[in-house]
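Hey, I'm writing a tutorial for new members on how sequence and structure tokens pair up, and I'd like a real worked example in the thread rather than a made-up one. If someone can provide the structure for the chain below, I'll link this post from the tutorial.
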Amino acid sequence: MRAPQRRLPALIFVLVLAAFLPAVGGAFLSWDDGENLVGNPHYRGLGPAHLTWIFTAVHMGHYIPVTWLTFALDYLIWGMNPAGYHLTAVLFHAVSTVLVYRLAVRLLTAGFDAGGPPPRAIPLGAALAALVWGLHPLRVESVAWITERRDVVSGALALAATLAYVQAVEDAERGGAVRRGLYWTAVACFTLAVFAKSIVVGLPLVLVALDVYPLRRIAIAPREGTVWGRVLRVALVEKFPFLAVAALAAGIMLVIGFRWGILAPVSHEGIAPRLALAAYSVLFYLGKTLWPWPLSPLYSLYRPVDALALRYLLPAVTGLALTAVLVALRRRWPAGLTVWVAYIALLLPASGIFPNGPQITADRYSYLPSVGWSILLGAFAVWAWRAWQAQRLSTPIARAALAAALVLVCGLTLLTQRQIAIWRDSVTLWRHAAWADPDSDVPLFYLGWALAEGGRFDEARAHFEACLARVPASLPALRAQFTLHLALVDAQAGRPAEAERRLREALALDPGHPVAWIRLGNLLWARGAPEEAARAWSAALERAAAWPRYQVWELRAAVAGVPEASPAARARLAFALALVLQEYRAHAEAEEHYRLAVRLEPGFGAAWNNLGVAYASRGRYADALDAFVHALRLQPGETGACANARRAAVAVGARPHELDGCRPEGT
């Protein structure tokens, strides 16, 4: 490789770093950054307690220990300065772009015959592929949003896994052996990738597609039995470690998704709507890749989904037609089918097959699936170079193509910098989202909260009132939710009487809303009505069975506002919140609330018992036994505490006398 070409990776790194450097000036956003980072002390360090949380916590419906490790390191270096967190994401993305370049060099070299393109063409085509991918404005959400660190971490690791795999097997087709060190490096990188974000579980299918083309390890249409044996060996036996890791990660993802209510069961969202949403997303990202404007942090999903509506029917027909064409051209143009299969495999977990959240699509889901399209563009550049060298393409056309490539890279860079400016703070972000999707109430909700957090209460109130005005009377629960948030804005603005009136309106619409009851109790206590406050808190506790239907962050914030000067109420509400947190496997946070409950109300036997369960789940059996003993002193012979205490006693080799009051086992 010539000296200028050897410097291409460094040049690519610098260009991407420079393009995304403005993101370093961004703030923590009022979109999960508070829940994940600003209000979450558990990841802040690498001590035993931090590492236990990192490797065991399912936080906000995600199990991403590798990503949490990067956040822990960020905290040790930067503290809570958002600039450092942003810089780490930018560096990850710049490294990923270099990995795309190196992967493109390998794949383009394998795809073109040795006598075809001149040596310079492949590195330049790979550089174009890397820059188009790395500088595309669709990448901004993954890089500029701190919470989405999981995209850039899993993306870098998945790209490293793919590159290591290609290097491991590229000699096998020529009679050489698979390079085992690189092969297991690929498996290790893939394992880390899925535990940075499980969305990359489709990578094994991508590797099989690459084995077909351009690596040519599997025949496109095998006929002989020996060839079929090779297909099975390469596609299944050789991929077994990858498939096993993918199956484990997918299983964890599905269990967590259904448990947290993130994924809708088939009974709630039928097969036809899921397929319609999947077809829509496949064409959506392809369209935004070609025309990346306008982009939004939230593309709202409007239900019910009519699979026969033109919005969904047209993408489905187009997708099927495109698939049929690429299958028909698989011999003449195998690269097209490989890119299409890789795109679908990587996009599938984030498609409408598994609907989650209020969005129909999200820019971040295109991070890894779009790599193939960029490499295909690089392949076209190599082909054009070869055609020009063979005088099948005139010099003016070749110059026009070169100029178009430069304009494309520069244009994408400008759009990316414009998109980064949108992500600099919460108000700017959600104001843009409200403009991009004027029919959706969700951006108005986020914009209202961003304005309130910035002390702009009149603007926040106006936005929430606009949301409320758009909700029909046939949706009382949603009207109650917006009325609740109007009350919270009034409370923040120092208008407690108006806030109380709003809370009562919310409860008239949704009498079971626990957050409204707790917040009302807090206001009543503050204005000197402790008896009324106690009744409001009791009403919330009476409805504790319904708490999991409401937002955990809202419950947490409401309970945190209950004064410890009313210890019994605060203890009981903390206990009820801990039950919800434990149901969602947020064991460390649940443990904190159980500890608070027993500190404020030492005679709360159920809280002592559940605190012991929380300790035992983390292997702290001595502390667990002590908690169970406290529970038995308060409630001698209580069946659950007896069973728990026996197990903890066996674990620590002790026999507390409080067990004497328990019934013998088996009776």
